[in-house]
Amino acid sequence: MRLADPAATLAYLSLFFGLLLVLFPVSFPRIIIANWQSARLTPLMILFTVSVNLGLYLAVAHQRSAKPGILAAACLGSLPVFLLAALNFVLQATIAHTFAGSSPNASLLVDEEILAHTYFAMIAAIFFPFLMIRLAQQFQS
Amino acid sequence: MPALHIYELTTGWAAAKWLLWILLYLSLGILVPWVLARAWTHQHQVTMQLRLKQLFQSGELGLVGLMLAISVIWDLQKSQYSSYTIALGSVFLALTGVMAGSVWIEAYCRRSSGIRFTPGRAWRDSRNLAFLVFSLAAVTEILLDRFAKVIAL
Lengths: 141, 153
Known about the structure:
Chain A has helices at residues 4-23, 27-37, 41-63, 70-100, 106-140.
């Protein structure tokens, strides 16, 4: 497994997110914030990132004619869950901190924070497990 | 979100400045070396293949990616996002930038030590990782642009 394998797919995913932000600057963030307010954002992100990770892993294994390992698959399945759950706790604290401040447009600032969090957390949850697998492979060799 | 905010977030060519800014980095990192190489071959009247793949076959695109990541981290640090968002974005950009740069380091070590070096693989790895850094930089700049507009309201 090389990091370049998932990098291209992740780059397209990131550009797609950016394109949605440019084309739908209001409705796309509104969907994300509505999902966050109804506590559906983190489970949806977990489902999405785990699916993308496993899909990428199987695609790379098929491309290289390699047998998928159970340890790597477990890592790709579990790391995004822990990472997204941990980041969600930190986001809650950040939102509380922003609302506690004296900013007149705190609500809009929080919306932008949630948007940035969603983007960075999604990309990190896909890239980080592959980075861990790559580092483990280098350590092993 | 009120109508005024919709207008503020969508209007004007100024919203595309992040794209111009990234294109400047790409032209300095990719186009200028290619033009200089062409000028050199013309000056010395040497016939050689000057494709990007040949020019950056040792993974130099990874270094361009690292340079781009550093500049976006700098922008992120100057923003008024919460310290948590700045830390998350900076760490992640730094990780991808370092991994892109490490492609060139691995290629250099392999060539220097005589261990099997595949230019095609170094090119592919550095191209994919530099593309990832580019897309991260673009979206981060879009987010920074939006945040600056909300702060200014």
